[in-house]
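Researcher: Next sequence.
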Amino acid sequence: MHSERAKPLKDGDAKPRIYSLTAMTAGLPKSNLHRAFGPKHGQRHFFGGGDKLDQNAVRKIRERLLISKTELARKAGVSPITIDRVEKGMTCRMETKRKIIFALGFDVSDKEKVFPGG
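Model: Next structure:
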């Protein structure tokens, strides 16, 4: 095997370029930046579940029943993060909605009370 060692640079030699993220993204429109690297912290996340629903009643019902997000998540069989996202109005799967409805003590026929318009 032949191994090459890096030779020390002499005056006039081409120096290796080190690109920063700022330099690489200079001139790109912001929409392309978001596609490449995702939005900044505090904005909607760029993958799944970022779309807003019409306001739902999950938080109001949960608080009226005096149960925590963690307890509702355990009863529904989903993560507390999912409950948090749903309460903030982000989309979720139909199966998740069904689990939350049952965990809150409602029936599927009462879906409009928990998720109006959804």
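Model: The CA atoms of residues 39 and 45 lie 6 Å apart. The radius of gyration is 25 Å.
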